[in-house]
Amino acid sequence: MVSKTTEMLDKILNNQKYISLTTYKKNGEDVSTPIWFARENDDVFIMTEDQSWKVKRMRNNSKVVFVSCNFIGKIRQKFIDLRIHGNVEFLEGEEVSKAEQKIAKKYRFLYRFAKREKNIFLKITSTAILKEPEPEDQGDCE
Prior knowledge:
Shape: globular
Mean pLDDT: 86
Strand content: 35-45%
CATH superfamily: Electron Transport, Fmn-binding Protein, Chain A
CATH class: Mainly Beta
CATH architecture: Roll
Radius of gyration: 16 Å
Low-confidence stretches: 137-142
Largest sheet: 7 strands, antiparallel
Number of helices: 3
Strand order of the largest sheet: 2-1-5-6-7-4-3
Distance between the termini: 55 Å
CATH topology: Pnp Oxidase, Chain A
């Protein structure tokens, strides 16, 4: 049986090439970056350079948020108010091979250009899909 989370991820991420990945600085400030991804059920696999700032932020705080976006990070209009929350895990051993195969299969020949010796692979386990609240009307300011 397919979970409700898997069904929602199918609707949000199927046929998408990028996610906007939000990570958090030590002071709580968020930083979003467009990134390639591949999926398996409720898990999302990503690849990035091991010395990138997002990796440093994820080592300090494993909680992330992501949503479908275009290649420059602009969130797709139909998903503008959805956010997928998850926890990131740094992969090792056979799990790296699995993640790499999934990403390589999805991006095919483009993957060859992005592949670097210093790339690492991570798995995001989705914990919740939340609708962003509408901004409250602040009324007239004086």
